[in-house]
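2024-03-11 09:14:02 DEBUG pipeline.ingest accepted 1 chain
2024-03-11 09:14:02 DEBUG pipeline.ingest length=162
2024-03-11 09:14:03 DEBUG pipeline.predict start
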Amino acid sequence: MASQPSSVVLARFENFELNLRSGELRQNGIPLKLPPQPAKLLTLLVSRSGEIVTRHELAEEIWGVETFVDFEQGLNFAVRQIRTLLKDDPDHPRFLETLPKRGYRFIATVEHSSNPPRRKTNHPRSLLSPNPAAQSQNNHSDGFGASPWQSSSGFAQCSRSA
C-alpha cells in the first residue's frame, strides 16, 4: 500500500486543497464543512490517489475493527457528502470513482505539498490598527470619544418620562 511521506501536508486538486493531517478541506481558500468521517474517507482516498481502496479497508480505517456499525450505510452517506461538497457526479466522476462491490478510487490529478496552509484572517488590517484620523477627531485619550449617555461631568444621564 503506497502512502505519502509524513512531510506531505497538503493535497491540491482542481480548486480544492485538503490538509492531510487535519482533514480540513478548502475551495479557493475558503474552508468547507466536512464532518469527521467524510474527512477521514477523503483524506485516505486522496493520499492513495489512483489506487483502488476496498470497502473493507475503508471500514477498518474509518470505523475500526472494534466498532460494530452498519458501515455500508455510513460509507455510502460519507461518499455522498464528499460528492456533494466537490460537486462530483457519480455517473461522470471527476474526483471519486465507484468500483461496484470493490471500493473507490480518487481519480483527479493531485499535487502534494509540504507547505503548511496559509491562514486567512477575517479581520481587515484597518480593524486591527487604530485609524489616526478618526482618533484625532474625538480628542479623547481612550480613542473612543464621549458616550452619548455621558454628561460633561462623566456621569451617565438618563431621563425618565412620567
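2024-03-11 09:14:41 DEBUG pipeline.report The CA atoms of residues 38 and 78 lie 5 Å apart.
2024-03-11 09:14:41 DEBUG pipeline.predict end
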